[in-house]
Amino acid sequence: MKIHLKNDRLWEQTKADCSKCAGLCCTALFFSKTDGFPQNKAAGVPCINLLGNYRCKIHSCLEQQKMKGCIGYDCFGAGQQVTQVVYKGKAWRDLPEQAAEIFDVFTVLFQIQQIRYFLTEALTLNPAAPYKRDVQDMMDQNIIICSGTPDDILCFDVDAYRNSVNTVLKQICALLRQNLHNKGKRSPKSFLGKTCKGEDLSWLDFSTKLLIAADFTGCTFDGTIFLGADTRDANFTSADLREAVFLTQGQINSAKGSRDTKIPGHLDYPATWK
Fold it and tell me: In the CATH scheme, what is the code of domain 186-266?
């Protein structure tokens, strides 16, 4: 079943482009050992591996350096949006008196761009057609705020906006789950460390589930919902994820896989997938 409409243009604004950013994720955010970093780092302090040109000096060997937090991270395009659009190409080193504000704007815009990612997918979902008007209205609001001034962004009520979006996303997920019920399938309560080699897991709802270290080698995921699922170290070798729903680059980056794993066209193969 063809679940997604192809629309590459829609996805462009949600793809991270580090070449147009100023190392914001490496500076603005707090790093914690519990999140897959070798050591803690305070928010607003540049990572010790950030170079003067805002590139990472160990980017080519993050896996060897045990930087799982960096490997799994994706900003949904917030970095270049802040640097190139909100601050007109100026970086936090160019505007030291505004550095703290820039970091705050980035943390807010990250949330808004993440929401934009899910709205983008909702617009490409065939089963979500009944909610297209609602989704488009929310997307229009998103586009406006992402291009706003720092004050506009910092004053925006992200929680209220997220709640309204989540209501629609839950309704869309309910439509998808109807296919699950029609096929007589039941979703297991836990996939933590579970072995599911070669199984057809289509139409299951993995929303917010712990999939850590699960073995999904050779599995099929048509219509499977990954909204908020924890995929750390889950093995998707040779699996078919092309029609998975609400699967993110960060979830792919955090998981294990191979070059013969089939992934959605708008996502990229992690460098760690051989």
Answer: 2.160.20.80
By the 8 A CB rule, do 235 and 212 touch? no
Q: Where are the domains of the chain?
A: 9-177, 186-266
Token pair in block for residue 220: 């099929």
The CA distance from 38 to 115, in Å, is: 29
Question: What string of pLDDT tens digits covers the 274 residues of the chain?
Answer: 689 988 788 899 999 999 999 999 999 999 988 877 878 899 999 999 999 999 999 998 988 888 888 999 999 999 999 999 999 999 999 999 999 999 999 999 999 999 999 999 999 999 899 999 999 999 999 999 999 999 999 999 999 999 999 999 999 999 888 876 666 666 777 899 999 999 999 999 999 999 999 999 999 999 999 999 999 999 999 999 999 999 999 999 999 999 999 999 999 999 889 8
Answering whether pTM is above 0.85, one says yes
